[in-house]
Design goal:
The protein has about 450 residues and is mainly β. The chain folds into three domains: about 30-210, Sandwich (Immunoglobulin-like); about 210-265 and about 270-350, Immunoglobulins (Immunoglobulin-like); about 360-445, Immunoglobulin-like. It contains four helices and 22 strands. Strands 3, 4, 6, 7 and 8 form a five-stranded antiparallel beta sheet that branches. Strands 11, 13, 14 and 15 form a four-stranded antiparallel beta sheet that branches. It has a four-stranded antiparallel beta sheet with strand order 19-18-21-22, with no helix packed on it.
Length: about 450
């Protein structure tokens, strides 16, 4: 009887609102970043690998990338929702994702032609590219965005929802007419399930559309055994630093006129534009840039933009052609705007650098032989050593072997007892043909 009453009491309670079903979709693409080079915008992100309920692999079929040019938001108007963004934006690219089930099958039965394995897997990093056209520089017309809301008369909270018949972007009055706030190209990425349901949207990336600076001229490339040096000229009319760095008073005291230039302390009345900087990229002239597939995000050789006009690149590989391009970067309100790339300059790195001469050669005569010893060289591409001998005092030095020795000692048993010989050693590297060092110090000795 007690149990019946308890069940009846629970069943007669006030019924709450129904809960929305849990929507299991792919998580948002992460590590989303953009880089604009002149009229090209490169986008890179990581393909989702989990669902919103933390299950894996993700229910993911494709990833779509959208873009739209948006001006400043009018006062009182909320930003576009995810649904509105996709409705009015331009589809930049659709990336098919490798199905996990097919991947497991491919491990057992490799696909014919390898087409399946060319698709990016979940968790992979992919990149796409958009070329900015003239019409993309102006704000999109959003007057047809429908923001009319269906009002539920039974829900008191819905009666206060405003009715908006449309949304039209307007220009925000600028504080200075000559410095209007420019629109930006905005990008998002979102995954889709096999059933066509959208997953969580990535963060929005805004790219400035201000005019890019002029591209630098082609760089000059020189190299040594250790590094390549890339130099270029500054862009004409490039912004340079206005004020000199703080002076070291102790250094000033050590200087005497006319070397000392007196600089007055000053405080700028307005914030000046930042000086122009530069990026250096490697470039493969034998690779065509595709429209969407197999796009690679350009990554500069330098870790941070350069204020100088020279870069040292330690990535020197002999026998390989390496090409370099340079871009100029102007900064507007803290945002970098990068130019088109310069014309490339290529150099085929050839090993024409000889090893150092071996050091501290010493000789000791013995019965029927002369023993030689010297200090080892430190070059990483060292192939070995050649021992040379000539008759003392003015005999021509001739090598005693055709294949370099890998040891740093040698016993010469081919001499004539009582004859006096002069010896030297050279180092050879692994280049083809090998580079030969200068002669070591010369020593004189006789077999006994």
């Amino acid at each position: 009887m007690f149990l019946l009453v308890l069940v009846t009491a629970v069943g007669c309670g006030k019924k709450g609102p129904p809960r929305a079903p849990i929507r299991i979709v792919p998580t948002e693409p992460i590590e989303f970043e953009a880089r604009r080079l002149g009229a090209e915008v490169y986008l890179q992100f990581e393909v989702p690998a989990t669902n919103t309920d933390d299950t894996a692999p993700a229910d993911l079929d494709t990833v779509e990338v959208y873009s739209i040019t948006l001006g400043p938001l009018p006062e009182g108007v909320s930003p576009l929702t995810d649904e509105e963004f996709i409705e009015v934006a331009t589809l930049v690219a659709t990336i098919d994702v490798r199905p996990p089930a097919d991947l497991e099958l491919a491990e057992l039965t490799p696909p014919v032609g390898g087409t399946l394995l060319e698709l990016p897997a979940q968790g992979a990093t992919v990149a796409v590219r958009e070329v900015l056209a003239t019409e993309m520089l102006s704000s999109a017309d959003l007057s047809n965005v429908d923001r009319r809301f269906d009002i539920d008369e039974d829900n008191e909270d819905d009666t206060e929802v405003p009715v908006v018949t449309g949304l039209r972007w307007v220009e925000t009055p600028a504080a200075f007419p000559f410095l209007p706030e420019r629109p930006r190209r905005t990008y998002v990425a979102v995954g889709l399930t096999a059933d066509g349901d959208y997953g969580n949207m990535s963060t929005e990336l805004g790219v400035r559309l201000d005019a890019a600076p002029n591209a630098p001229g082609p760089p000059e490339v020189s190299y040594t055994v250790d590094a390549a040096t890339i130099t270029w000229s500054p862009v004409p009319n490039a912004m340079r630093a206005v004020q000199a760095p703080a002076l070291d008073l102790s250094a000033l005291e050590a200087m005497a006129p006319p070397e000392l230039q007196v600089l007055l302390e000053s405080t700028p009345t307005i914030a000046s534009a930042e000086p122009m900087t530069y990026n250096v990229y490697t470039y493969n002239p034998h690779t065509e840039v595709p429209a969407t597939g197999d796009v690679v995000m350009p990554i500069p050789v330098n870790a941070v933009p350069l204020e100088t006009f020279e870069l040292s690149d330690a990535n020197v590989e002999f026998g390989v052609e390496r090409c370099y391009i340079v871009t100029a970067i102007s900064t507007v309100d803290g945002d970098p705007i990068e130019s088109e790339a310069s014309s490339p300059t290529c150099a085929e790195f050839r090993d024409t650098f000889s090893p150092a001469a071996p050091r501290n050669l010493a000789a000791v005569g013995s019965v029927g032989a002369v023993s030689l010893i010297w200090e080892p060289n430190s070059e990483v591409d060292l192939a070995g050593y050649l021992v040379l001998r000539g008759e003392s005092p003015n005999g021509t030095l001739e090598p005693l072997m055709t294949v370099p020795l890998t040891e740093t000692n040698y016993r010469d048993t081919t001499g004539t007892t009582g004859a006096t010989y002069v010896y030297a050693v050279v180092a050879a590297d692994g280049a083809a043909p090998p580079n030969i060092s200068e002669l070591s110090n010369q020593v004189t000795e006789s077999p006994r």
